[in-house]
Amino acid sequence: MVSLAAEERRAWLLQRLSALQRVSLAEAASELGVSEMTVRRDLDGLELGGTIRRVRGGAMYTGPVSFHGREQSQAAEKATIAEKLLPLVPTSGMIALDSSTTMHQLAQRISGSGDLTVVTNGMLTFQALQERPGLTAVLTGGAADRRSDSLVGPVTTGFVSRVHFSAFFASAASLDERGCHESTLEEAEVKRAIARASERVLIGVHSEKLGSVSVAHAVDIDEIDTLATELAPNARDLAAFRRLVSDLR
């Protein structure tokens, strides 16, 4: 797991990159009082969150990666995560899916053989759920965020706060001992609202996102019921999250 000192360094790096768009290894190491190797490792972790890009001698701020850009990254691992979560999708009732590419993979696998309503703020995920017998897809409404092909804002959060979900299936830009984080404030607000309206919260993330931090905190660790990664539940990298992965195979 990432230490508290590392979390503080990464938060500082994100703030500096957001403000200045670029930071050098030498400058950051001097400001933080650590080695350039330490800063390089911190930047490598932040790059996995999709808001920065490592360049020669430092890093530059890129903002959130597009849906199609994320969809092509680690596709096989995302498929594995979706397969693990699929048996946990109920056949009836109402659930929510976020706008992530991992949950888009899950949406493509839901058979719709019962009487299930799926609410999502992901425009492409909504499309993937169309014309399934026994399944009703609902798009939340809200302002379109073309950075993520999702719907966000007060209309979105207002809608989901008035609905009760049996389960919320979501991914995250990063996950540490505090919980899930997102690359935009708007997406974090939507996920926070859905989590509060849900009986269970099931998170699916690539293991490389564990221990890293992104721009905005979304869901507290105590709100998460299940964590799925591409790793086996007994993998060493999941030791800190053992409670959340114990029921997955």
From TrEMBL:
Entry GO MF terms: DNA binding
Keywords of this entry: DNA-binding, Transcription, Transcription regulation
UniProt-recorded name of the protein: DeoR/GlpR family DNA-binding transcription regulator
PANTHER family: AGA OPERON TRANSCRIPTIONAL REPRESSOR-RELATED, HTH-TYPE TRANSCRIPTIONAL REGULATOR SRLR-RELATED
Domain HTH deoR-type: 6-61
Coiled coil location: none
Listed Pfam families: DeoRC (PF00455), HTH_DeoR (PF08220)
